[in-house]
Amino acid sequence: MLDALSYDFMQQALAASLLASIACGVIGTLVVVNRLVFLAGGVSHAAYGGVGLAFHYGWPVLPSAIGFSVASSMLMAGVALKRPEKADTAIGVLWAAGMAFGIILIDLTPGYKADLMSFLFGSILAVPLTDLYLMAALDAVLLAVVALCHQTLLVASFDREFAEARGLPVRTAHYLVVGMTAVGVVMLIRVVGLVLVMALLTIPPFIAARSARSLPSMMAAATAWSTVFCVGGLALAYRWDVTSGAAIIAVASAGFMAVSGVGMLRRAMGKQSIPR
Q1: Whose CA is closest to 233, among 212, 219, 223, 247?
Q2: Helix segments in the chain, DSSP class H
Q3: Sign of the dihedral defined by the CA atoms of residues 178, 180, 182, 188, in that order
Q4: pLDDT (tens digit per residue) in 53-84
Q5: Residue 214 zone, left/alpha/beta (φ > 0; ψ -120 to 50; rest)
Q6: How many CA atoms lie within 13 A of 212 on its CB side?
Q7: Distance, CA of 136 to CA of 16 (rounded, Å)
Q8: What is the pTM of this model?
Q9: Cα–Cα distance between 29 and 75 in angstroms, integer?
């Protein structure tokens, strides 16, 4: 593995892992505490419509996917806020419509299409240098927004009624979280693909939540866990020549089961140690 670090593509893959882990830690934490996992899944699959637009019209893929995802996420966020009883249906429709739109556009696009599989299952070993600069800029924006709106995001995430009673902009915070989720999802698609992105958005925050005592500490711990999973999966993919996105999620899933198993074992030992 150390020998592989001499290659430019591996150095760029590691850089992409670190940058994606920052977005994963920040966005994944907000998704988990706001219970927006299904909505994030809808955004990740709707993003394929942006990929189709980019390929059909020859636009840059990452900015096109981000624009399409943000627009789709705003529609989903609006329905979830105004008609919560219809939210699941609307998200499911936009989820499928985005993917169908993207697939049809790609089918209508003449030429070589083999690279499209990388958007379904990730292509961290082929992330270009220009995408790394864009990912770094997006991370900086995400961190700045979270730092500036920390108090509102914190209160609105854990006690919406109290936040509304205090006059905090809860609706704006809702749209802000969903919009940032759209940006984070597109960044993670580069690493693990849209089929597997939900695992990387939920497993690290879930593990981090077991010991975190504040929202920032949960984001930091989720970022650290995500980095471990991405680098571990990258090493596994290089060693065994398997798909990098699947390897990363396999490592994350193994980590999830190991942490859950240790937790169950500790609870069982705690019950046994209680004197009768």
Answers
A1: 247
A2: 8-33, 37-57, 61-82, 87-107, 117-121, 129-148, 150-158, 160-165, 170-192, 197-209, 215-240, 244-273
A3: negative
A4: 888 888 888 888 888 889 988 988 888 888 87
A5: beta
A6: 21
A7: 9
A8: 0.85
A9: 22
